User: Fold this.
Amino acid sequence: MARLANYFVVVGYDLDNRVEGEGQGRILQRFPEKDWEDSPFPQGIELFCQPSGWQLVPERQAASFFVAVLTDINSERHYCACFTFWEGLDSPQLKKVDAGDADEADEEPAVVQHSKLFAPKSLVVVSRLDYTEAFRNCLGLIYTVHVDGLSTPLETVIGNLLTCVIPVAGGSQIDESPVCSLDKVPQSPACDWLLACLQPGPEEREDSLRTITLGAGDRQVIQTPINDALPVSGSSVAQLFRQLGIVNVLYLFCAALTEHKILFLSSSYQRLTDACRGLLAIMFPLKYSFTYVPILPGKLLEVLSTPTPFIIGVNSFFRSETQELLDVIIADLDGGTVTIPECVHISLLPEPLLQQTQTALSMVLDPELEFSDQAFPPQSMNPSALKIQDKEIRAVFLWLFARLFQGYRWCLHIIRIHPEPVIRFHKAAFLGQRSLTEDDFLMKVLDGMAFAGFVSERGPPYRATDLFDDLVANQVERIRQEEACPHKVMNHVKELAEQLFKNENPYPAVAMHKVQRPSETSQSTDQSRTPFPVLDDVAVQLFIDHAVAKLKSSPPVVKAELKSMVPSGPPLGDIVDRNGNVMANSARRLEVVRNCITYIFDNKMLEAKKLMPAVLRALKGRTARVCLTQELNQHVLQNRAVLDDQQFDYIVRMMNCTLQDCSHMDEHGIAATLLPLVTAFCRKLGAGITQFAYSCVQEHMVWTTMQFWEAMFYSDVQNHIKALYMETDDGNQDQQDGSGNRREISALELAAEQNRLWPTLSKEMQTERVQKEESTVFSQAIHYANRMSYLLLPLDTSKNRLLRSSGLGDVESVSNSYVTNSIAGSMAESYDTESGFEDAESSDVANSVVRFINRFVDKVCNESGVTNEHLKALHTMIPDIVQMHIETLDAVHRESKRLPPIQKPKLLRPTLLPGEELVMDGMRVHLIPDGRDEATGQMGGPPLLPAEGAIFLTTYRLIFKGTPSDALVGEQIVTRSFPIASLTKEKRISVTLTMDQFVQEGLQLRSCTFQLMKIAFDEEVASDLAESFRKHLHKLRFPQHVQGTFAFTVGQTGKLVLEPKTKDKNQSLKTLSKNLVKNAKRTISRQYVGRKKEVPATWENRSNFQSELDEDEISVSEEVDQSALTLSSTIRSSDRQTMSNVVERACCRDYQRLGLGTLSNSLTRSKNEPFRISTANRMYTVCRSYPGLLIIPQNIPDSTIHRICRCYRQNRFPVVCWRHSRTKAVLLRSAGLHAKGVVSFFKSPNAPTAVPSQADSTSLEQEKYLQAIISSMPSYSESTGRNTLSGFTSTHMNTSESSDKLRQPKIGDLMKQVLGNKEDVPGTFSRGALGQKAKVISLSQPKVSGKARNSPRGKWGSIRGSGRLSAYNPDIGTRLAGKESPQPNGGPNDPLFLRQQKAYLYIIGDKAQLKGGKQDSFQQWEVIPIEVCDVRQVKNSFKKLMKACVPSSQTTEPNMSFLRLLEDSEWMTLLHRVLQVSVLVVELLDTGSSVMVSLEDGWDVTTQVVSLVQLLSDPYYRTFDGFRLLVEKEWLSFGHRFSHRGAQTLGSQSSGFTPVFLQFLDCVHQIHLQFPMEFEFSQYYLKFLAYHYMSNRFRTFLLDSDYDRIELGVLYEEKSDRRNPQVCKSVWDYIDRLNKKAPVFYNYMYSPEDEEVLRPYTFISNLKVWDFYLEETLSDGPPYDWELRSRQESLAEETAEKADTGAPKSQRHIVWPCYDNLSKVMPDAITKLLQDLQNLEAELGQTSEKWKDTWDKIKTTQRTETKLESKPSFSSSLLMSSNLSHQRRSQGVCLQDSRVGSSIKLGLDCEASATSTPVAGRPSTSTLYSQFQSTESENRSFEGILYKRGALLKPWKPRWFVLDKTKHELRYYDSRQDKDCKGVIELSDVESVTVGTPTMGAPKNVEEKAFFDLKTSKRMYNLCAQESSNAQLWMDSIQSSLSDA
Assistant:
């Protein structure tokens, strides 16, 4: 029973007390005046009566009513029902108000006047019960009694109100009648009716129904709820939804549950209270436990800034003051909006719950929605009445909570049953089993205060139950089945709503409200009323005292609580992860886990090892992890399972994998099941020493989480307490459930039973049980202190893990390397040594562990009621436990160190070169497969990678050596290495290996020798060691100076010395070097004196101020005349002997061979020699990057050179480097012109006759220089006038006149391709005046590859610059292309124009450099502008090529295929460009014109082109000696910047690797492929050079010029240094030595033609990817260091001899791709024969002959044999390449005869004249035949004479045509007798045969029908028979051959 009202208060306006002009309220009277003991009077009521402030108003306002809620210090809510009305103030009171002071003089009653102001007065009922309507009625009645002046005294009414007692909830046995009933109140003075009222009346027995009366003729029924645990909401919930809408209320609901601040705004106070009440009602069964103020007075608004969550209501009047609240959610009830600030994130309900809840709510609130689209909607679809709707909404939320919390009781741990149940909720288990660990909303709810209250309230197993308990226990299954069907959900909701409504309105029919209201007149009339009177407090107090006395005398009301056992509901099934696909936990995977564990325990280790990777993959699924723990449990006998080392290792590895893959929450579940196992599995280390699994699984965060240990502890305590009571009641152990199955009693059920019996037990029994429980908890605490010390103390206690992980909570700092005993207990390495506790003593470890365990023990023991004595005992015990365990661990650690580690492969030592030394010893690593498939076994063959081994860093190389990780591959050794100097990129990677789940870190190292090493450091390699490795690698890759490279440091063990101090043997050489450098510096400084003083004249910044000098007019007057300094005068006599070295070095031998002059300084030198060797640059003063001796025209003095060189970049002026032996045309090289030089050079029309007005002296000098070159050509000096091609009849050309004439037009084709071909080229030139377009002899359009596909221009750019007339003579293009220049007037062409003119000197220049000048048509040189490929382009292209050939990871994307990446790299396009220009230059030289290559700085593309031209034109350069000379002359002496382009030092690191020389070697390789018989050296020779060009093993390719080499004193030492014969300093010497020993570099097919000029095809389709980029030998690394090969072979032989000889030796040898070196394992026939010959000679004891001598002998004998034979047999001619000339020609390897049309067409579709090289490398049909037949006479189906029109501008000629149906071809010869076929037309290429028309130059007197055209896929052939019938016959025959095919 409870009082309906605790206090009645009258609050009025305080006229005496105003603060800062604001009115105050004060309590005028309160009853009772003494506080009730059980309910103290709440403070501050006056504030809440007028929340907006106490104010006087000029007009009377309507009475108002609202309920405010106050919360006291004990969190009890007091409901303050405020009834406020307005009273007029009389004059004296008004004066008081006006004066503001208290004037109490006039105390007489004032005359009633019409007052101006009204003051508020409030009647307040304070109650602990929330009966809004009852309070409204009662207060209304009191007001009515006062206003209407009813006879009932107010004291009676108030007394009755304060003494009214009602039941708190339904079910009270005795219902008291009202203290004073209507019948008992006599109309008499107070004392009499007071006594009468106290007589008891007839009793009413009604459940949950209370009729009350206040004695003023009123009567009202109060219905108390049946169950007061359920909130009473009236219709407030429905109102809230109507005001805000579904989504907004759901936001507020989630915000309240997740503890956000919520503020309601409304202008109505009652609505604020209702909204707050409604929000609390839908939160049931959770109770809101934070600040709850439905109506907040304006004076207390600062409460809104509180940091804690709240639900508060504020009048809209204060809206502006709520604007700056940043973290408060504001719900405006009047406007229907909810405003959520940006900084607030509300976690919403998890899907699909949110969606289902919204649907259910919408069906309740708006049932019409569902049928709104139906044609015949149901008739009555109105929503339920507001009160019913209110309950339906609440039912939806009840249903929602039942789903959210289903199964919660299974996660309650009961730790104590007696004397009071102590219960803990296991959150991790709940979320884990629901697989909602990631759900933000549920996590926050479970962590919240409301849920903590829920657990403490609903946790006890024996208590009264309510609707929610029933729902969550018994209807879960129904909810689960119905959740998908909204209608079934609605039915359920309606059932729940009915129960809620019945609880709130047990008797809905009873509604006996009889309460008087004020009469209309009293309300409306504004006449003066009497103020509310002062009540007689004695009378009221009498009522209260009597009531209290009566209650005391009546028997106490005992409401028997119906306690029962709370049902738990169905247990939580394992719900599959939301994202868990079926695959993750398929039965097959579980079977794999079970099998593996069985194999381990059956000791079938090989089987287990095979399954291990699959098991580790399977363990990523939760089911597999649970399965593992179950399986392991079965192998534990009596808490112990002793394993051997390997079993132990596998079990530990699986445990680690299981723990590491667990999610944050699930980890607790899995770790909990593993916890008993880690202390069970162990292995014996020695006598009495056992190592347990826990020492190897400590590296997981879960062990340092306090919550985990608590949950584990409580779970174990629960089991033990359960066992404790199970023993006492053995009989009740099992219960039978409905189906008759026996099931185990849960701990909660047991506790409920014990709680029920508790009152029946005797005191002794009770005490005994309490003690037993307490000691159970205590013993568990000791057990857990032990367990925790096991898992927290590291094996090596010198390393403190706890301290490092900063209070056991810092997830980031815990490393992921899960270390098993593979490292035999050396856990030390895996701990992070950066903790700052490396030197910590073990006591630190002990202390931190003790502290952690103490914290744990304090918490759990306090919660579970352990006595203080026991707690103290625990605290003293823990340090001893820890210390004891540390001692045990020390012994285990010691023993485990002695254990042989689990078999890791032995580290293999690499073979080193002589002079190569280890910088860092082997570090154990794993070599990970990269993007190449070969080694991984995907292309067939075994998976060699990944491999396990070690990486070694030496002074020269980076070497990996190891064995494949796959145990089934066999005992293969995998080696991958590359020179450190070739490293191009290094980046860190993180690698996951299948076997060892985590490897700390890895590196990816890419080398420009096309190697890629992806290595992952093994767990035993400390991270600082790996870092040190990186630093050493970087230091070796980029030394400070070139002298730090391996080529210089080889064999030196000491530190790197910059200046060698030892005395040099060849002192004179040293002196020469010093003199040269000194003089050079002196001259240079003199040269620049007086000019730009601020620039220091040093060589280092020479290039920097070169550009500044370009802008100056460079004066020549200060120059010293260099011609005075002759060679003999500048070099002292002591040094002259060394000049021979200079001469040799400067390639004078080559100059002399070419007839370019000798080095004689006498005046008797023959003046008729056109060129001479100049010594102008002997001191490197003219050009530092040129050689000391240069070839210049005879009549140019040295002084001119100094002036000319200024015009060219880097001072690299034109010098002769080669001369054609037949045409005597010369090849010159230079850098591009400076911009100024170009313009001045071309601006004036420098005709021979013109006066050079305003011309620069340098331009004239330059012109003279070029003129001198031209005049040195014999063709120029012999001809008298301008030379045309028709009159090109020099004596030295008579021999080949006819062939030369036929060769002319080819240059036109070439030129067109180089400059870019388009049929309107002449039209572009002849803009304006030349109106008509010249007729172009058709050549099909080039198919440009790569990115230029859309561009109409060729790769080298077209003659048409950018639409403007370009910077050179418009006629050049037409002349070179061999076309007519049309007349301006369009008339017939003059015969003169048909004579093709040819320039004497062509200058190949950079298009970008040649803008803005014009050239006179009478000059004798012409400029061919081409677009040069920039070095940046080469660099980028090479990077892409490397990624294409050696991808870093495998990819299946079509865009990332090898061919696509190769195309994107544009490498082949760059090769095509270089070759194209080279072939053009070859053609020009071959026709007698000289060529000057003048591109970029003259040391990249220029060098490539010049070298290739010489290689193609001169067979000498295709020999060993010649190629060496070519490279030394063009690349080394002429200053290609090897060091800079190769990024060999720290200084050039930023410039990056630019492989210009590699590109040249690739071009040579392409030519070698097309002409295999023309080269003395093999492809291997080119690869060898390519490798060592990048390796820095030799000094040959270091430094940027001869000057640099002299400065370092290394130019001539290669030959003179014989101190260390093992170490070769020059790659050439090394090749010579090797070549003498074995034929590795020799090309057996070498059979050169005399004076053969090679003209290779340069289409991209004809180029092949060099296998140097693709091949790899994993058996012993790159095959280019021969000492390594010989050493490895000798080692292999030794091991083979030691091996068991008894075993049968197989003759078979398996050759694996990418593993074996094919040339070594399977040598070609000739090498094999030579080797066998040597071996036989050695066996016979003869001195073995050198291989070259043997080979030469065989060749000579073979030749003589062939001469003797009348007809060469195929077999004999195959071996002897000397006789292969016919076969080679027919195989299309090269194009011997050039008379048939154009033999080479770069970039164009070539005509198939002669036997063209098949594009795809497939021999044509003709080739297949001609190999076996020497004559073609047998296959002539039809033959005869036909006229054929030649290629561009060639006449028609009669040819003997043969149609061969067998070979399916049409051949033609010069005559019938001719055996040498001039060309072949493949019939397979013929597209059509059509009647033709005669064209210009056709045979005369032939009828028109005799012409016909043969169109092939490549070109059009114009043919003509002698008569029309003959032509028809030919056409029919060809047609029939085509149809036969």
